[in-house]
Amino acid sequence: MPMIKEYKTVSEVVGPLMMVEGVEGIKFDELVDIQIQDGSTRRGQVLEVQEDKAVVQLFESAAGINLRDTKVRFRGKPLELAVSEDMLGRVFDGMGKVKDGGPEILAEQSLDINGQAINPIRRDYPDEFIQTGISAIDHLNTLVRGQKLPVFSGSGLPHKELAAQIARQATVLNSDEKFAVVFAAMGITFEEAEYFMEDFRKTGAIERSVMFINLANDPAIERIATPKMALTTAEYLAYEKDMHVLVIMTDMTNYCEALREVSAARREVPGRRGYPGYLYTNLSTLYERAGRLVGKKGSVTQIPILTMPEDDITHPIPDLTGYITEGQIILARDLYNAGYKPPINVLPSLSRLKDKGTGEGKTRADHAATMNQLFAAYAQGKQVKELAVVLGESALSETDKLYVKFTTRFEEEYINQGFYTNRSIIDSLTLGWELLSILPRTELKRIKDDMLDEYLPKTEG
């Protein structure tokens, strides 16, 4: 059993931080119970140790703490989460306490929420297709098992609807293995939390989901623990219970704001835009907990969602996230304003592992070729549309006009599928071919002739 040490030597409290003096044998990240004068207990964690002083980060508010009468008990172990398969179908708060009024979880294990770094030699390459039912992702920016693929959104854009749609629809094709969703919400409003819980319950997605919800009025410090709770649950379900787990984390921007708040309270030298200099390292400790392990059936796939402040993709949060993850799905304000759902901006979106999860035996042989051709045709069509704005419709050739028609229908039918349409990859491929048939066959230079013969719809005339 770890040694529990108790002290009554609190010297100061600044925001979410407390300084305890005269301590010995205290370890970084150790769990702390703080008993205040009215007998109630709050929790904290050791953030820094210097000689005989420890800085403790409080998970709850510091209100009402009296320096003289406060007892600080160091537990000798890090923050742990009690895990069990019974967590599926349940809702927890950001610190892992049951929030849905149901019974407590009977723990099979208690796990350190900081996880263990995966040995690179043990990592298996992500190469199995996950179907989200969304054409712009499945066909054009394919998600594979064990990947981390963030969604870059902006304030007011419908990322919560997209997150709920992915949670409802995601499956691993041709597999009877169990699939689960771990959903972590950080700093969201009560209204958004209600939206997710209601949607998950109504559609039955809750049955295979574990939800961790940290509300905007919960302590910011709790936000730092929430994604770790979710990822610890995901690793347990994946590597102990052989499940394929999709972790959806929203909103990573709120998580980074909480880091900034603690950093400011510690009076650290700020980095870009006031975020701590270790923001990159800190984010990588979360994102790198995705993957597959050699010899284990399960996998952890991540979809972190973040709102780019002022829609600025060069802001530190999307910038650093883009370095660590394998691509990004970008939501566009102009598509949203035009009423498209989901407003996925196909051209700057990217999945760096898409080639590994597509093709014969995974999706279909024509997947990669049609994906490249759709990208090229859409890019060309966008250019032609811009040209038409400057020079007028009369300046367009017959082929140009077909590109305009293709682009309009591509946005209205392919991208704009709605939040409740679940398309199989075959549906997406069929629709892709139908749209490509608008263009003259001579324009389809990225697809081999034998494939065109097999799949291109025959046009009348």
UniProtKB/TrEMBL annotation:
GO terms classed as biological process: proton motive force-driven plasma membrane ATP synthesis
Domain (ATP synthase A/B type C-terminal) ranges: 357-455
Record key words, sorted: ATP synthesis, Hydrogen ion transport, Ion transport, Transport
Encoding gene (name): atpB
ATPase F1/V1/A1 complex alpha/beta subunit nucleotide-binding domain span: 133-351
Domain of life: Bacteria
Family, similarity comment: Belongs to the ATPase alpha/beta chains family.
Gene3D superfamilies: 3.40.50.12240
Protein name as annotated: V-type ATP synthase beta chain
Domain ATPase F1/V1/A1 complex alpha/beta subunit N-terminal: 10-76
SUPFAM superfamilies with a match to the protein in the record: C-terminal domain of alpha and beta subunits of F1 ATP synthase, P-loop containing nucleoside triphosphate hydrolases
Species: Streptococcus hillyeri
GO molecular-function term, one example from the UniProt record: proton-transporting ATP synthase activity, rotational mechanism
Biological role stated in the UniProt entry: Produces ATP from ADP in the presence of a proton gradient across the membrane. The V-type beta chain is a regulatory subunit.
